[in-house]
Amino acid sequence: MIEDKILDETLGLINGSGTIDAYNFLKSNLSKLNEISSQVYNFLYCLAATSHNEEEALEWLEEAILDKGIWYRPEVFEDEDLESIVDNERFKVCVGVSEERYNNELKTACTKFTLDSVLEENLLVVLHGNQQNNVISQSYWSNVKLDKYQIEYLQSKELDSYNLYRWDEDGSAVEQLEQNLTKVSDMFQNTILSGFSAGCNAILHFIIETDIKIKGIILNSPWIPIIESQGRLIVETLKEKKIKCLLICGNQDEDCYPLYQQFNALAEEVGYEFQEVIEDEVGHEYSRDLYKYVSGFVSQNKM
Fold it and tell me: How far apart are alpha carbons 277 and 293 in whole angstroms?
């Protein structure tokens, strides 16, 4: 998606030339977006606040919350990037409005699983990353067609911001997956779980904490902090349960590549073989060759 690429480049500028250049770059590329999402607004007001543009930061915040009806989970406003505006009354008004909407959303938040009928012999379930949703997942998987596989999508009930969701490390990911997969696992011969970013972490928690049979997992840009505390148990469980794994990661993914390296080192120690694709000059994003890698993984492992 265009938004993901723009935000990825913005992050690169933040880490490289600084927030002012990143802010100017993001503003200059807004016209390329069909709409400004809650995530983009978050970048805008945070970058403005850290670039000595407090007035613009407040204007972006008011546009997002007061004009567009957007809301955020309360933790978003604890970001140290916003220190220069936290005492401003306009900021406090926006936070209050956002928190009220967030609390209202909590009352009806629920997991959304797109599966409503059995159409194929096998099932592949896609989990989004943080600050994403099923629609975003579908945009990346739309051209992936697998023989005898039904591709469905599972959206977390954990709120991130307006129309965006997350899988918290200490959240209810395992419970959500277990509740939904228990209902349908016996309806299919094989089940593959695929995650992007934090969705991968949710999958690994699920693998070691439940006994539901899974044939394979696909970890794309894997944000897997669980590997730091339970890494050996994870790879031992994958090996014991004979779960096939495809891991796709960019070597420029500053947060996830080191976690992949830890996973790989533990796999070598335990003797767990998995399929990996490390893409050169790629950051934290979906692989452009997703179909090729996924179809190859499924066919090679005869799943």
Answer: 8
Show which of 84, 106, 128 is a domain's final residue. 106
What CATH number does the domain containing 187 carry? 3.40.50.1820
The H or E element containing residue 39 is helix 38-50
User: Residue 4: what pLDDT?
Assistant: 84
Domain-terminating residue out of 106, 141, 173: 106
Give the tens place of pLDDT for each residue, 16-39.
Answer: 889 999 999 999 999 999 999 999
pLDDT digits (tens, 9 = 90+) for 266-280: 999 999 999 999 999
Q: Are 240 and 270 in contact (CB under 8 A)?
A: no
Both 119 and 224 in a single domain? yes
Contact (CB, 8 A) for 46 and 82 = yes
Contacts of 275 (CB under 8 A, 6+ apart): 244, 245, 246, 247, 297, 300
Query: Based on the domain organization, do 116 and 170 belong to the same domain?
Result: yes
The number of distinct structural domains making up the chain is 2
Tokens coding 262:
């830890």
Give residues with Cβ within 8 angstroms of 54, minimum separation 6: 48, 84, 85, 88
pTM: 0.92
- C-beta of residue 92 within 8 angstroms of C-beta of residue 61: no
At 32 the pLDDT is 95
pLDDT band at 217 (very low <50, low <70, confident <90, very high): very high
Q: For residue 189, give its domain range.
A: 112-300
Same domain, 41 and 155: no
